[in-house]
């Protein structure tokens, strides 16, 4: 039941240094691109500003009479949006630098989380397919996220966000060329 | 498409003399004389399929008309008798229309099995062409509705790994043909697997040699008594409720009439102010008892409908489950596809010492509904505790669900959840109660908080995991208990989780992602989790065995 060449070949699963991809060397978790944090923080700030702008527009426009309870709630609404947006931005400032990943011979690891730190490990043997995903903003920043799908279902898609495009492609190709994936 | 004139009834080519055979006898037959490949020509179904299509159309229409039922019922009651005759005529006309549409559906349906492909043309207004290669078929389900049984016909449901809309039904074929088709499809899987995954080849070949001479072995049968117990302990009401949806109004009218007969008049009760509280309480109690026994009765009926004549058997490398009263179903699952065994015991099961055993396969995307008959999850209903252990050992040799070395989760689990779901809401509600000056509210909040603390404590007490070098075991539950068992090499992903507080206390949660879903065990010692994750990853990556 065990493949004959896995029996003769000693098992190894060292960390692969990413800058020298084909040669294996000891290394630790690698951080994702710092631009990912910039995108997220500016997105939070932008959404907050847009919402406040919309509120202000409704508050001061001369066309329709706004009911007085709404007028009174204007400063509170702005405050709530600002606080939520600020918290969101603050979260990204501290959380996004915590997202780190590692590629090993046999698996991919991803560590993330500010208060709840989680470390996920995805054996490459179980990968069903790989995608790189790029939204409009990430495209602008030259980033991509790598999505790795296994039979664990869509809730357990392994995703490394905020990778430079070249790195994402490199990782994707590595997984595709991996003997366990290409064998199928 | 080429519809040749020679396309005749399948029954003409394959005589259906098998109707007298017991379902379990199929392993003894030499099926080689049945030709599966129908050649280039397109086949029409057996005539009995007209009946199937008619029934299906009526069912579909009834489902569509559920919302019209109250309106119809009202007009039926209020209209004059002459109008009622129109209504009857209309009803009869509808049934005839359905029968005609059944006939048309029958004529528009053609299929062929050719070159390892199942091809089906179906549909009246929107024509549909399905082409399903054998190797994409995940499961073959054989159903025999009660009106098929005297004639020995079956309905074959071909299940793909993809979405539910991709499944194909061959509506009426002789039973032997269906069984042979299933055999070939599963055979195809085996050969596909052996070429695709070199590591499973030896295993598959070995099994072939060992077991090709052996016949099907029945592992478990459920008697009517067992199924009644299952109906009582597990709420299977919805099986009946779903089927009876069009008749709700009548049923409610009947029940209120019946209650009135028994001297219980709801309108009077509500109207009279003078009823003593204990009388009111007694009435409520009686009502509750009547309702409960009714529900239990319905549930037993539902269980009998699905599980009547239950057998679980093993044939070569697959498990076959047969059951059903009106609609006899046959589901088969390859042993290697089983990701996890779960033995579930609710509180009533605990009292009666019964266990529901599930063999869980992969849950394919898009099929979130865990239906009972789903081939993704094979259930052995209400077995005794000993039988559950035996069956779990049959599927996973050497496993022991009821072991004594479960590592309990840390007490901080209780602390964490008590603070989160009991203390915090309690404080909030109490301060609210102080604000509005309502001591009753605080009292209720206190009661709810106590209850949730008790449940959290039970959850902590049950939760634990064990690893015996071959299998991983998880025990969990609140009032009931679930025992899960799975092989580490089938894991898809492993996740270790830690909050800031857990990190300080050197604790961690671990999540195992399997193709059948994920299993989480919280608040374990961090060192244990680390070594476990490493061991498990080594198991997956070094054995490189297929999870399917």
Describe the overall structure.
The complex is a heterodimer of chains A (184) and B (548). Chain A is α+β, with helices and mostly antiparallel strands. In chain A, 44% of the residues lie in helices and 23% in strands. Chain A has helices at residues 4-8, 35-60, 68-95, 136-140, 165-177, 179-182; strands at residues 30-31, 100-103, 107-112, 116-123, 127-133, 143-150, 158-164. Chain A has a 4-stranded antiparallel sheet, with no helix packed on it. A 3-stranded antiparallel sheet of chain A has the order 5-6-7. The two termini of chain A are 17 Å apart. By secondary structure, chain B is an alpha+beta fold. Among the domains of chain B are: 226-307, no CATH class; 338-409 and 463-543, no CATH class; 412-461. Chain B is 46% helix and 23% strand. Chain B has helices at residues 10-13, 49-65, 69-78, 81-108, 175-196, 201-211, 224-233, 237-244, 248-261, 266-271, 277-307, 347-352, 385-395, 412-436, 439-462, 500-504, 526-543, and strands at residues 110-114, 117-122, 128-133, 137-145, 153-160, 168-174, 217-221, 311-315, 318-323, 327-334, 340-345, 354-360, 377-384, 407-408, 464-467, 472-476, 481-486, 493-499, 507-514, 517-525. The longest helix of chain B has 31 residues, at 277-307. At the A-B interface, strand 4 of A face strand 18 and helix 17 of B. Strand 4 (116-123) of chain A pairs antiparallel with strand 18 (493-499) of chain B.
